[in-house]
């Protein structure tokens, strides 16, 4: 998962577009399971949103990282619209 | 969820005891759903573990926070064995 804050104001049309486009583009990558757009509400955490997804194994995660849809989303949207973020990779 | 790092070394008997006791004590609180002990593996994130759980609604979350088992776990174990942590509260 990644938790992040956008350069757009919360609730703005641009923020909603980013969240919707991210969900549409990233959840369509075949190895991605259970994609969720989340809102971060703890006042003790300085991020506004989360994208959460699951991968079957390390190979699936690497296929996601290398997938053209992920790469272009990162370059065209993430790097231009995300003000700050924290990546968190969890295994059980 | 909370991501955290313990004052004990990774893989130590004390670290394992903390994770197991946390899972046992916190998952037994009736409002807690889908409790998971997780290991954080991203080199870009400076925490080693995660405790993840779900709540039906805000009332359930507040019941958890106020529950004696949670309160005593925080005072007796969390405050003495956790070196640093980040709370993250996500809603969809």
Automatic annotation (TrEMBL), chains A, B:
Name of a matching Pfam family: Dabb
Domain Stress-response A/B barrel: residue ranges: 1-90
Record-linked InterPro entries: Dabb, Dimeric_a/b-barrel
TM stretches of this protein: none
UniProt name for this protein: Stress responsive protein
């Amino acid at each position: 998962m990644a938790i992040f804050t956008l350069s757009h104001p919360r609730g703005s049309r641009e923020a909603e577009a980013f969240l919707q486009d991210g969900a549409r583009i990233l959840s369509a990558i075949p190895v991605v399971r259970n994609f969720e757009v989340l809102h971060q509400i703890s006042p003790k955490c300085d991020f506004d949103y989360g994208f959460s997804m699951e991968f079957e194994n390390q190979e699936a995660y690497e296929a996601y990282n290398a997938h053209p849809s992920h790469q272009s989303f990162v370059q065209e949207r993430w790097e231009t619209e995300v003000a700050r973020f924290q990546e968190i990779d969890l295994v059980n």
